[in-house]
C-alpha cells in the first residue's frame, strides 16, 4: 500500500505540475493519459473489484459526451453540464444494471455488448444526435488548460475514490462478490444492490470524463464515443496493468494511451500497433494474469531473494 | 562527477540535434488519413496519391519558396478511421512535428473531427476528402477541394431533367430517395428535395428513407422502396454501403427506370464486385478520368506509370489537394502560416485536373466546381454522359432491364 501511495504521488505530481514545465504537445499526451486513467480505474471498480466484466462502457462515455454537447448547444456553460452528464450516466447504469445483473459470467458480458451496440445504433439513427455525422460544440473560446486540469483532477479523484472504496466495507463486499457470489449472499451481502452501486459510481466518473472529452475535442460522433473498440480498450487497460488492483489500471492506461498515440505517430511502427497490443495481451493472459503489477511483484520477490530489494514496489497495489 | 558531465554533454548534443532538425530548410507537411479501418479502401488511395504528389515535387528538386527550392518532408499518419484519434494525430503533428500545414483526411466524420484543431494553433489545413458543407466556414484555416454534396445532387437532377427534355424519360417521375444518416447524406437529400420543390410539376418523392452507415441488411429498407413503386432510385452511400445495397437490390429483383448512388457507381471496386448488377448505374463525381482536358490525360498516364493503378476520383482529389497546397506555398513565398492561408484563400489554379479546369475556394474555404455524370455500361465500360460538351457516350435511359 505504501508503494501504491508512492506511485499515486508520482501520478499526481506529473499531472498537476506538467503545465509548468511541459509544452502543449506533451500536455495533450498527458490529457489522453488522464482520460484513460479515469476510464480504466472506474471500470476496474465493477470489473476488477466486483468481477463483473462489462463490455459496454463506451455507452457511458457517449452519454456524457452527448449530454455536454447538447446542453452546450442549448446555451449552457459546458462545465455546468458535467453533473448532468454524470447523473444521466448513473441513471442509464441503473436501467441497464437492473436486468443484466441477474446474469452471471459471460452472459453478463455478452448482454453488455448488446447494450453498448444498441445505444450506438440508436444514436446513429436519431436526428437530435446528428445521426452518424455527430455534433459539434458551439464555437466558443477553447481553454485547453482548464480542460487539462479538469481531466487531471478527475483522474486523481477517480483513483482516490477507488483507494477509499477498497478499504471500506463496500469494497470488501465487492471483493466477496467477485470471489464467490453465492457465499457472499449467504453471508448477507445484497449482491445486486452492491453491483448496481459500483456500476453507478463508475458510470458517474466515466460520464463526466465523456463530457470533458467532448469539451476537448469539440466534436463527437457515435463512431467515436459509442465505439465498441473504445469499450474493448477500457477493458484491456486494467487487464494489461493488473485487474482488481489500484495501480494496475493506471499503469495499463499509461501504457495503452501513451504508446498507442506514439506508435500511430511513428512511421515505422504505425502498422504494427495492433500486433504489439495483441502480443502484449497474450503474454499477460498466458504468463502473468495479474498484469504489470504482478510482473513488478515478481521482480521485487526476485530482488529480495537476491538480497537486493527493489524500492517503491506497488505492494498491495 | 565525470559521469554527470558526460551526461550533460549528451543531453546538450541531443537538444542541439533536435533544434537542428526543426531548423532545416524543408517544408514539413502533415497528413492524417484512414489507412486502416472502415474507411481504409479509399483512405489508402488518398495515401498513395498524396505520397505521389509529394514525390514528384521532391524529385524535381522541391518546392520554390521565397526563391529557394525546399524539399518536402511528409509525415503521413493513420488514424485507423477513428475520429478521436484523427484529431489527436493532427494535434500531434502540429505541436510535436511542427508541420507548416496539414493535409486532411477522407470522410466527413473524420474531417469534422480534424477540422476543429487548425483553428486552435493557426495552421493551414486542406482536405480533399469531405464535401459536407457544415465543415467549412467555421474557421478561416480550413479549406477543402471537394465541392458541396448538395450541388452533386443538383447536377444529377439537371442530368435527369435533360433526359426528360430529350424524351428518354417521361415526366412526371417519382423518386425513391435513400440517404445515409450523415451530413453527406443530408446534403444530398437537401439538394434533390430543393430541386423537386422548385420543379414540382415534374417530380415527386413518394418515399424517403435514411440508413445507418455500414448497415448489415438492406432488405427491410429496399422492401419499402419496392412497395413505393417509384420510377427512379436515388441513393447516397459510401462505397461499402453502395456495394452491399446494390447487391441486395439485384437479389430482390427491383427494377427502377434509373439508379444512382450519388458519387458511387463508377468505382472500379464496385463494378468488379457487382458485375452486371452495376450496369447502367449513373454517378455524379468530383472527377473522371474521361475528362477531355490535356492535363487530365497527362495525369492519367503519369499516375498509371508511377503506381500501376488507373486513377479514380479519390486519387485525383488526393493528388490535386497536395498540388493546391504546394502552389499556395509557392505563391506565399514563405512558410509563415498566415501567408500560406492567405495564398490558399486567393488561389486560382488554372491548370487544374478537376472539372472546369480552374480550382478556387469560396469564402467558406470549400471549392465549388462543376460535377460530371458517368454511366456504367455493359462489359465494364464507363461513359462520361454529362456535361454534354464533354460526353464520351450517349446516356442509356430508361435502363433496358432483361
What does the overall shape of chain B look like? globular
Write the H/E string of chain A, N to C.
Answer: HHHHHEHHHHEHHHHH
Outline type of chain A: globular
Portion of residues within helices of chain A: over 70%
Instruction: Profile the largest sheet of chain B.
Output: 6 strands, mixed
Outline of this structure?
With 317 residues, chain A is mainly alpha-helical. Chain A has 14 helices and two strands. Helix content of chain A is 75%, strand content 1%.
What can you see in these coordinates?
Chain A has 317 residues and is an all-alpha fold. In chain A, helix 2 (24-49) packs across helix 11 (228-241) and helix 7 crosses helix 9. Chain A has a two-stranded antiparallel ribbon with strand order 1-2. Chain A has helices at residues 2-21, 24-49, 58-73, 78-100, 106-125, 144-167, 169-179, 181-186, 191-217, 222-225, 228-241, 248-265, 273-287, 291-305, and strands at residues 135-136, 219-220. Chain A has one domain: ABC transporter involved in vitamin B12 uptake, BtuC (Orthogonal Bundle). Chain B contains 13 helices and 13 strands. In chain B, strand 9 (232-236), helix 9 and strand 10 form a beta-alpha-beta unit. Chain B has 2 domains: 23-147 and 293-345, Response regulator (Rossmann fold, 3-Layer(aba) Sandwich); 149-285 and 372-390, Response regulator (Rossmann fold, 3-Layer(aba) Sandwich), CATH 3.40.50. The A-B interface holds A 23-25, 28, 32, 121, 124-125, 130-134, 136, 139, 142, 144, 213, 217-221, 223-225, 227, 229, 261, 264-265, 267, 270-271 and B 36, 75-80, 82-85, 87-89, 91-93, 95-97, 108-109, 112-113, 116, 120, 132, 134, 138, 180-186, 210, 212-213.
Task: Itemize the secondary structure elements and their pairings.
The complex is a heterodimer of chains A (317) and B (402).
Chain A: H1 2-21, H2 24-49, H3 58-73, H4 78-100, H5 106-125, E1 135-136, H6 144-167, H7 169-179, H8 181-186, H9 191-217, E2 219-220, H10 222-225, H11 228-241, H12 248-265, H13 273-287, H14 291-305
Antiparallel strand pairs in A: 1-2
Chain B: H1 2-23, E1 26-33, H2 40-59, E2 63-65, E3 68-78, H3 83-95, E4 101-103, H4 108-114, H5 117-121, E5 125-127, E6 142-144, H6 149-165, E7 173-180, H7 183-198, E8 203-211, H8 219-228, E9 232-236, H9 239-251, E10 258-260, H10 268-274, E11 282-285, H11 294-307, H12 313-332, H13 337-345, E12 372-377, E13 381-386
